[in-house]
Design goal:
By secondary structure, this protein is mostly helical. It folds into two domains: 75 residues, no CATH class; 71 residues, Winged helix-like DNA-binding domain superfamily/Winged helix DNA-binding domain (Arc Repressor Mutant, subunit A, Orthogonal Bundle), CATH 1.10.10.10. Helices cover 76% and strands 0% of the residues. The protein is built from eight helices and no strands. The radius of gyration is 21 Å and the shape is elongated.
Length: 161
C-alpha cells in the first residue's frame, strides 16, 4: 500500500524528477503541458504501486519506460481520433482538437439530436461503437447504424454545397 508520504518522497526525489522531465521534454510539442504534468503524477503513482525490486530493474528505468509508453499512447489516441475524422468526414486539414471539434459541430448542425450525439461520442470522445451503444441503451449494431446514417446525411449535405 502506497501512502501519501511515499508518493511525496518519490515526487521530490531528484532522480525521479530528472527522469520525468527527460521523458516529458520529448513530447512537449505533441502533448499539452498540463496533460504532461498530470500524466507524470499518475504514472509515478502507478509505478510506486506496481514496481517490484525483485525484478532487478532500477525504479528510474521502470518509471522512464512507463511514462514514455503513456505519452506514446496519448499521441496514438489523438492520431486515431483525427484519422477517423479524415476518413469518414472527409476533412482536408485541421490542427488541434479544437479545430476538429468546431468542424464536427458545424457538420452535425441540423441533424437530429440522437445522430449528433453518436457522432460527437465517436469522433470527439473517441468512444467505441460498443461503448456508444451501452451508454445510449442501444445495441452495438444500432449504434453502428446510427453512425452510418449520420455520416450519410453529413456527406449528402457536403456534396450539395
Amino acid at each position: 500500500m502506497i501512502t501519501d508520504t511515499d508518493f511525496e518522497n518519490a515526487l521530490s526525489d531528484s532522480n525521479n524528477q530528472r527522469i520525468m522531465s527527460k521523458v516529458s521534454c520529448k513530447y512537449i510539442n505533441s502533448i499539452s503541458y498540463d496533460e504532461l504534468e498530470s500524466e507524470k503524477l499518475i504514472v509515478l503513482w502507478e509505478c510506486l504501486k506496481t514496481y517490484d525490486p525483485r525484478r532487478k530493474k532500477k525504479f528510474t528505468s521502470f518509471l522512464y519506460q512507463k511514462l514514455d509508453w503513456r505519452y506514446k499512447k496519448i499521441i496514438r489516441e489523438k492520431r486515431r481520433q483525427r484519422s477517423r475524422a479524415y476518413e469518414n468526414l472527409g476533412l482536408k486539414c485541421f490542427g488541434d482538437g479544437h479545430d476538429l471539434e468546431q468542424k464536427i459541430k458545424s457538420y452535425t448542425d441540423g441533424l437530429p439530436n440522437h445522430l449528433t450525439q453518436v457522432i460527437i461520442q465517436y469522433y470527439l470522445h473517441n468512444m467505441t461503437i460498443e461503448e456508444i451503444g451501452n451508454k445510449n441503451h442501444y445495441s452495438r449494431e444500432t449504434a453502428r447504424r446510427l453512425i452510418k446514417k449520420a455520416l450519410k446525411k453529413i456527406r449528402n449535405r457536403l456534396s450539395e454545397n
